[in-house]
Amino acid sequence: QLQASGGGLVQPGESLRLSCAASGSIFSGSVMGWYRQPPGKQRELVALVTSSGSTTYVDSVKGRFTISRDNAKSTVYLQMNSLKPEDTAVYYCYLSYPITWGQGTQVTVSS
Hints:
Elements: E1 2-5, E2 8-10, E3 16-22, E4 32-37, E5 44-49, E6 55-57, E7 65-70, E8 75-80, E9 89-96, E10 99-101, E11 105-109
């Protein structure tokens, strides 16, 4: 089970940090990450991180978002800086093995 937190309402240019903790230990080879679903659109990849720290980002967040992971705590983080209105979405954390989704946390960027 994955428990996400940290969403909220912010103004353009501000920052938020999302956290997602897995209950119990996870398979060491699992990839963790974040997807998002903007209003009226399909769910899309935001960022992934392997257990060794290798990362992947969608182009639209490169240079603004940073994904990290604490293997000892089975937790993945998403630091989001310079937020834009187009970042507004429900953000879901993800675990690759077994495939598991968090409950979603709302991020709204609006002035």
